[in-house]
Automatic annotation (TrEMBL):
Protein family (similarity comment): Belongs to the peptidase M14 family.
Domain Peptidase M14: 114-419
Protein name per UniProt: M14 family metallopeptidase
Secretion signal span: none
Length: 434
């Protein structure tokens, strides 16, 4: 009987209830590489395989496995599925876990033309701004390693004025292969502009908030992933790493809060969770961090809430990821309860599973932790559709885009509702919001 595995992963992916064929590779012997993932057209880059790791039953086990540099793609009751180099997989076997070759549940296919590439995205942004010049504006906040513009779209009444209003940030596509998040940005831009003046709720929110959408913060990686004859399963950016033939930094391990602290990222450039040589060493992370720091006015951060969109697993995650504790240094009980209550409130709308990031396994250097720990912004990671690899994994068919982006409308509006004072959701507005 073919086993089935249920899976979860923070800011990286999930495979759930997917039957697979497996070949056992004893831990003492080593591992076999499944195939070439993320190497099309780039022979000098590392070979990554897909493996099932048996005997992992706790968040602590999964953290130990992730510390090898493997990316955990999903979690089962007694096993996890990882994307890893042969060296990573051999190291996992050396820890005492059984390591097995794992068939890709959904083979990599030709890049789906229904997804929005970078040039098309720029065109969509220009179209939205041209159609709604009074409430939408675009700006270039910096450039990627390869020189592509990193764009921000502001949506608000009096869009050219920096008003004293709560601000909300939406970040998309830190990980290159997570193209559905770019479609989420397109959907939000159109929802908030086309709905203005016709939908009373949207109109009030646009009037009373300043909304920032960063539609693709890793355009180099996204374009690389889409450029081959098949999807390349690429996660990182594309900057070279000195002394290594393996390019790229995992943007969501490069943020300057508890960077590299806790075994939640890799120091090996060959790893797909490579954290970079220093915090904010990735130009894309530095640009976005500078943008967020630039929203501090009169000593006060204007951004009150944020969502960082990823795929896949249908989760809503909140900080911290670098520690298993909820109440800890930098997070009081009221602050934790605010994140949890707001996460649960949003999850009621889209059917995602709400939980603290580290309930899955420890990650460090994530935007989730930085936005709260450094900037005190109440924030969440959305892991979008699908719930399992059976729905397409990182590459669901473009036919689901409209349905799955619309699915998050109410959840996002609920975050906007509480942007004036997130602590209102636990009845602590007087204590925290004056």
């Amino acid at each position: 009987m073919t086993p089935r595995i249920r899976s979860l992963t923070p800011a990286g992916g999930i495979v759930g209830s997917t039957p697979v064929r497996r070949i056992l590779v004893p831990a003492a012997v080593g591992v076999l590489v499944l195939g070439l993932l993320g190497t099309s057209g780039a022979s000098a880059e590392p070979v990554h395989g897909l493996y099932e790791v048996r005997g992992a039953t706790s968040a602590q086990d999964r953290t130990e496995i992730a510390a090898t540099g493997a990316a955990i793609d999903h979690v089962g009751d007694e096993s996890v599925l990882v994307t890893a180099t042969p060296d990573d997989a051999e190291e996992i076997g050396g820890l005492g876990y059984g390591v097995e070759e794992f068939d890709v549940p959904v083979p990599l296919a030709d890049p789906d033309p229904g997804y929005t590439g970078y040039a098309e995205l720029v065109g969509v942004i220009d179209e939205v701004v041209a159609a709604h010049p009074d409430i939408a504006a675009r700006s270039v906040i910096g450039r990627s390693h390869e020189g592509r513009d990193l764009l921000a779209v502001k949506i608000s009444d009096n869009v050219d004025v920096d008003e004293d209003q709560p601000e909300v940030l939406f970040v998309h596509a830190q990980h290159a292969r997570e193209h559905l998040t770019v479609e989420m940005a397109v959907h939000l831009m159109r929802l908030l502009t086309d709905g203005y003046g016709g939908d009373p709720r949207i109109t009030d929110l646009v009037d009373d908030r300043e909304i920032w959408i960063l539609p693709n913060v890793n355009p180099d990686g996204s374009e690389y992933d889409m450029a081959g004859s098949t999807w390349r399963n690429w996660r990182k950016n594309r900057q070279p790493n000195e002394g290594s033939s393996s390019p790229g930094t995992d943007l969501n391990r490069n943020w300057a809060y508890e960077w590299g602290c806790c075994g939640g990222s890799s120091g090996n450039p060959s790893s797909i969770t490579y954290r970079g040589p220093a915090p904010e060493s990735a130009p894309e992370v530095r640009v976005v961090a500078d943008f967020v720091r630039g929203r501090v006015v009169g000593g006060e951060q204007q951004i009150t809430t944020a969502i960082d969109f990823h795929t896949y697993s249908e989760l809503i995650l909140w900080p911290f990821g670098h520690t298993y504790d909820d109440v800890t240094n930098g997070m009081t009980r009221e602050e934790y309860d605010t994140h949890a209550a707001l996460g649960e409130h949003m999850a009621e709308a889209n059917g995602y599973t709400p939980q603290q990031s580290s309930d899955l396994y420890v990650t460090d250097g994530s935007i989730n932790d930085w936005l709260w720990g450094d900037q005190r912004i109440v924030n969440f990671t959305y892991e979008m559709y699908p719930r399992s690899a059976a729905g397409g994994g990182f590459y669901p068919p473009s036919s689901v885009i409209e349905r799955e982006t619309a699915r998050n409308e109410e959840a996002v509006l609920r975050l906007l509702d509480y942007a004036d004072c997130p602590y209102r959701i636990i009845g602590e507005e007087a204590a925290y919001c004056g």
